[in-house]
Amino acid sequence: MLVLARLKSFSKTAIEMNLSQSTISARVADLERELDRKMFTRNHHSVALTPAGSIFLPYAKKAVHDYEQGRWHINAIETFDDRLAIGNVNSALGNFLLPVYVDFMRAYPRISIHAAIGHSSDILQQLADGLIDVAISYRLPKSKKIRSWICVDEDFVFVVGRKDPLAEYESIHVKGLAITNLIMQDWGGAFSEWFHSIIPANRFSGCYMSSTPALAHLYVDRRQTAAPAGNRKMDRCYEE
C-alpha cells in the first residue's frame, strides 16, 4: 500500500517491488477485503487514495516502521543498545551534519544512527507520524506537540566573477535579482517557497538548475551570473 500510495501507479509499483501487477492488485484487494473499505480509486492513468485510504495510510506507515524497528532490535541486540532515526534535508547533511554524526558515533558507539534524506515537508510528516526521532528541516513544525530550535542561519550567496560589473557592489537588493540574468540553483521544497515569496518565479529570464555541477559548469563558462544559495565553498572556489 505504501509504495502504491507514493507512486500512484500499479506498473511503477510492480517495477519497484519486482512483482507482477497482478500480484500488486491481489494484495490491494486482500487489504481492502480485510478492512471492508476501498483504499484506492483507479482509472486508466493514475491511482489515488480514497478518504478511507488517506485515514489508514499513517497507521500503515507506523505499522511498517514498528516492524522494521522490531526486526532491527532483534538483529542488532548484540551490537547496539538503541537506534536514533534522523530526517535530514540534503544540504544540511552534506554541509555540516556529517562531522556531527561522526562525533556522535564516537561518543556513543552502542547507538546506531539511521539518517534519512528528504524535503522538509516529508521529514516533518515522518516526525509527526513517529517514524523518525529528530528532524533537521528548513521549516518550523506546525504542531505544538513538537519542540523545535533554530540551530543554523544560512546566507543567500550571490556569486559573480571578479570582472563582472556587479562585483563592485558589496550586496545586491532582492529586487535586483529579478532583472539580473541568473542561473538559479533551485533546491525545491521550503527553499523554493521562500525564494518565490520574495521574487515571483515568472520574473526570471535566466536558467534554473537543480544540479550543482551543471550550475558550476555554466558559471565557469561565463554565460550567466550564478546565484547559488548558502554554499560558501562554491563561493570561494569560483571567485578565484
Automatic annotation (TrEMBL):
The entry's protein name is Transcriptional regulator, LysR family
| Family stated for the protein in its record | Belongs to the LysR transcriptional regulatory family.
Q: Where is the HTH lysR-type domain?
A: 1-50
Question: In its keyword annotation, does this UniProt entry include Amino-acid biosynthesis?
Answer: no
Lipid metabolism: present as a keyword of the record? no
Q: Which InterPro entries match?
A: LysR_HTH_N (IPR000847), LysR_subst-bd (IPR005119), WH-like_DNA-bd_sf (IPR036388), WH_DNA-bd_sf (IPR036390)
Q: Name one Pfam family in it.
A: LysR_substrate
Classification from the root reads:
Bacteria, Bacillati, Bacillota, Negativicutes, Selenomonadales
Gene Ontology MF terms in the entry: DNA-binding transcription factor activity; transcription cis-regulatory region binding
Query: What is the superkingdom listed in this entry's lineage?
Result: Bacteria
Q: Which UniProt keywords are present, listed alphabetically?
A: DNA-binding, Transcription, Transcription regulation
The organism encoding this protein is Selenomonas artemidis F0399
